[in-house]
Amino acid sequence: MSKNNLKSVVSKRQLYRRIAAIVNQINHETKIESTTPYDLGQSSTSQCVEQDLCPPSLDNFEVIPDFQSTDISILASSDSEEHDLPERSVIENSTYAESLGLESQSWATSFKITHIALKRLLHILHPYHPYLPYDSRTLLHTPLNFPVKQLESGQYIHLGLEASLKHFIDKNEHWQGDTLFVSFNIDGLPLYKSTNIQCWPILGLIKNLPHQSPFAVGVFCGKSKPCPLPVYLDRFIEECNFLKNGFLHKSKRYNFCIHSFVCDAPARAYIKCIKPPTGYSFCEKRVAPGEYVSGRVILRDLCAAKRTNESFRRQLDEDHHLGLSPLLALDIDMVKQFPIDYMHNVSLGVMRKLLNYWVGGNLNIRLGSTSVIRISNTLACFKDYIPIEITRKPRPLSELQRYKATEFRTFLLYTGIVALKDILPCQIYNHFLLFHSAIYLMVVSDRDENREINSELASKLLLTFIKQGGRLYGREFYIYNVHVLSHLSDDFLHYGALDNFSAFPFENYLGHMKSLVKSTTKPLQQICHRLQELNHTGIEINNKSNLPRVEIEHVNGPCLINNFEKQYKKVFLANYCLSIFSYSKSDAFCITDNKIIQIFNIVCDQSGGIAIIGKYFSKSTSFYEYPFDSSILKIYLVSELSKELNIWQLSDIKGKCIHLPFKDKYVSIPLLHTTS
């Protein structure tokens, strides 16, 4: 650009750019002038002429020693190194600048730094690191805008399904598959306590690989549910139908399949356009009519005709439908691909209902205050025995109304069977064991060869639980959450372990999305901007090739043989972490094929092989015998550690255990997601 075309009034950033360009040009010209031999010779000659010096004679020269070829090479190499220094410095500075920028991005997004604070920090750092941008939006690659769709009740932004799938492929470069199975979730999320503004994102989750995080396909924000529903879902449905024929990414074709829609009951009713959970014909699996009892609708018929995809699409049961669902345009099974979510149904539904019965129900069921205190004290004692994989530790029953879904799940699967033992009346305790054993069976089992047998057993246990519950708690017990337990085994048979179609990962992601909103101004844009910024913080690879991994070296022993050169306090495996007892007693118990082990040391040999040194419990018996022997689930009452230390290879370990005190013994319960 010529000087005449330069603007007379420029921004501060433009002024800095022009100054930097001029400085770079001056430095470049100076470097050329100072390193040109011709100019140096010309300068010295002219200096001689100006000083009017006489031509030199041989007598005026001192004897110059002979130069060897090595001397010439040294001079040449020295000269070349001098010329390479600026280029090398530029490369190093460029690498350093890129590294600092990426680390700054990661820090800002990980700790949810506001743009105002980040921008101020960049202004402070810029004089010392001029390659950093001045604006936080430049650093985080914040998009300028999104196309916003206006709905009657709010606004919607479609982020894209195909883009998210390609991002997943890029993150997992070691994945060699060609078909992506995606589970979707649609649910409402209140953003503020003082207003009705709510967020309804469409979330997806890749089911092919474990330990994946959900992603947002689209986000709606408004004062009520997204309305009209067809307008809210049309971009999502259009893209799903487009992707069913596959898509290309980096010269490879990938297939896309819908795995399931995992939602709570109200959200399923809304997107399927059927009666809500309070309706008489709401049951999604069977044509079971409800009846009104004591202010609620109950469902007692457990043997009604099953609904099918064909009957749903033809709307044979008119009382079940409120209209035509937009999802009918997808090639999915409208019954089987909407499984019962055990987070809402089992944990927040039935387990919470049982605890409320025992703490504040009718007098013929309610526990006395002394019994409630005993249970609370027992739960408090369990805090030091809960492993690191369970994030929420047990709380007393006085905080029952604040329990989260994970706390109800922990109580049902692990702590409840011990805390309620000898406190809850025998008949009620055995009724609870029906529920515990059925859910435990469907959470732990994911093998195809055992699935049909376990599904049949779990179905019988749950049907017995439902029928006995009516006699113990009254007809009001047959609420919707209890009724659909009779259908849970069918979903288990179709999808496998209950965590394969659970809403737990989606609920965690919703909480993360809520934390992205910093003010009441344009919450939809805030969420979408932050989500896009997270996609630019670097490529994450879910690669388990560096596992198992040991940490925290020590020299305290014990060691049984001398060929182990290093000792450690922790070892990380794919799904869990083990520690020595002196470091963390809650993470120091594991299970082999037939023994419960307490870990005393973790050792590593010269070839990298890892072994466990510990003692095993010599006495183990079943903890309960109804409805079947607890040893079938590998739940034992153990005591008496072996006197001598033993050694096990890491490959001998089949999983991790929760070790809970009971009287003068311990109850050992396998940690479900760790067992093989």
Automatic annotation (TrEMBL):
Which superkingdom is the protein from? Answer: Eukaryota
Could you tell me which PANTHER family the record lists for this protein? PROTEIN, PUTATIVE-RELATED, TRANSPOSASE DOMAIN-CONTAINING PROTEIN
Protein's name according to its UniProt entry: DUF4806 domain-containing protein
Q: Which organism is it from?
A: Callosobruchus maculatus
